Amino acid sequence: MAGLAALAIWSGPRAAEPPPAVILMIGDGMDDHQITIARNYALGADGTLAMETLPYRAAAKVLGIEEADPAMPAYVGDSANSATSLATGAVTSAGRVSTAAGTDEDLPTILEQARGAGLRTGLVTTSALTDATPAAFAAHVADRDCQGPADMSRVECAPDARARGGPGSIAEQMIAAGADLMLGGGAAYFGQRIDPNDSRSPTIIHRARDAGYTVARSLAEAGAAPPGGKVLGLFARRDLPVEWEGEEARPIEIARDGRPRVPAPFRCAANPRFGDTPTLEAMTRLALERLGGDNAKGLFLMVEGASIDKQTHERNPCGHIGELLAFDRAVTAVAAWAATRPRTLLIVTADHGHAAQIIPYPSMFSDYEKLPGIGPQYPAGYVARLRTGEGAVMTINYATNAPPEGVAEEHTGVHVPVFAAGAGAEDIGPLTSQPALHDVMLRRLGR
Ligand SMILES: [Zn+2]
Predict the structure, then answer these.
(1) 231 falls in which pLDDT band (50, 70, 90)?
(2) Cα–Cα distance between 302 and 62 in angstroms, integer?
(3) Is pLDDT above 70 for 376?
(4) Beta bridge partners of 386
(5) Do 322 and 243 form a contact (C-beta atoms < 8 A)?
(6) Cα–Cα distance between 270 and 283 in angstroms, integer?
(7) Is pLDDT at 447 greater than 80 in this prediction?
(8) Is the pLDDT of residue 11 over 70?
(9) Gyration radius of the chain over CA positions
């Protein structure tokens, strides 16, 4: 055996050995209920999504703390603090982007460390690139709303404002962080002047070009950027349009006879406003091609399906189902790419739970109505009924805020699913946490 070891040393690094790659895919708000809703609708109750074919399955605790008392846990997170956990391994408070609760100290991110070691790095999202999830990998601010220079006069953005010697908004910091590729929305933020009060001030897009970025408004332009060069693809002013549309859930109406009337079942439809927007799968394929090609050192890529969350806030079941399926198609593309590269770790997970749940309708307690003093049984909150591909009716309920005043649904505090494949996936325990996932990823990159 000693002889073989010596031979291995003498032959130097094996030419066929691929560089390490870590690809983190985040379905925003994609808890097990979201996954089951999309599976039921599109594939049937016994169907299987692409992410569910990955060989490792775990659950990750979403850890957060209170800003006012960092010793106290916060049981419901947002995309900012949960993405901070995944990006930095640190637990922080809701709204913070890779900064510490209480102290506002900057927390180094896995993308920054990978870039510092010479690896290629990328961020792909269906939201504005300045939104909390992608921002947490390449910016450090006290509050997620500090997206562009025009936001920096807000009180919560003061610690990072240029006027106070800070590094500026999320958009400015993301250009300075220098990821090789950023694809998503957010042109409205990157198009802002760095000094909003000075009409001669350059915009962040000017600053990006100075830093060597090709600024693309279509996927074709992004793909035509010089090989090895940096790309900033801005495909919408803010978030990208969603792929599917349909009715929003509604509160139950009580008819004159005192009986509840639930909305009629419906099917989802393609969103005509999606148009020629690049799909998450197409953006992800371009990212793999540009970051993975002719790359000796390795890569870190984060891909986010952002509007699963946003559509659930709006109680639009077709919106979040369509976005989850679009995310799953991107998973298929990454899994196929990773299967031919043995040193690749693929992790698919969510940042936090969300409001949508599947409930029985009519209520399983309808029989109780025959008892004295018990009236009709019907769901609280907002309800939509979908006719699934199997022809059955799936009733979806959103009830974290009461109608009619509840402006939007809330996140929920459940742990989130983890699916994984490839090198290092075996290091993920069956019950893990978002900071622990960060540590597994960092180890794979040799940091
Ligand atoms: Zn949300």
Answers:
(1) very high
(2) 18
(3) yes
(4) 266, 394
(5) yes
(6) 19
(7) no
(8) no
(9) 23
Buried b (16+ CB within 10 A) or exposed e, 47-63: eebbbbebebebbbebb
Mean of per-residue pLDDT scores for the chain? 94
Instruction: Please give the sequence-ordered ranges of beta strands (E in DSSP) within 278-362, or none if there are none.
Output: 299-305, 344-350, 357-359
Query: Exposed, middle or buried: residue 286 (CB in 10 Å: 0-12, 13-18, 19+)?
Result: buried
Which residues are 305's β-sheet partners?
27
pLDDT of residue 16: 61
Distance 219 CA to ligand 1 centre (A): 27
CA of 387 to the centre of ligand 1 (A): 26
The number of beta carbons lying within 10 Å of the beta carbon of residue 435 is 17
Is residue 9 pLDDT above 50, yes or no?
no
321 or 376, higher pLDDT: 321
HSE value, Cβ hemisphere, 13 Å, CA-based, for 375: 7
Give SS3 for 242.
coil
Closest C-alpha among 73, 123, 108, 113 to residue 93: 73
How far is residue 383 from each of residues 51, 178, 265, 287, 402, measured CA to CA in Å?
28, 44, 11, 38, 12
For the record, the structure tokens of 213 come out as: 């970025």
Output the CA 7–ligand 1 centroid distance in Å: 55
Q: Which residues are catalytic?
A: 79
Res 119: pLDDT: 97
Q: What is the mean pLDDT of residues 114-128?
A: 98
- Residues β-bridged to residue 59: 417, 431
Distance CA 348, CA 86 (A): 12
pTM tops 0.85, yes or no: yes
Whether the pLDDT of residue 406 is over 80: the answer is no
Give distance in angstroms: CA of 354 to centre of ligand 1.
8
Distance CA 351, CA 76 (A): 11
3-state secondary structure of 121: strand
Q: Are strands 56-61 and 416-422 parallel, antiparallel or unpaired?
A: antiparallel
pLDDT classification of 8: cutoffs 50, 70, 90: very low
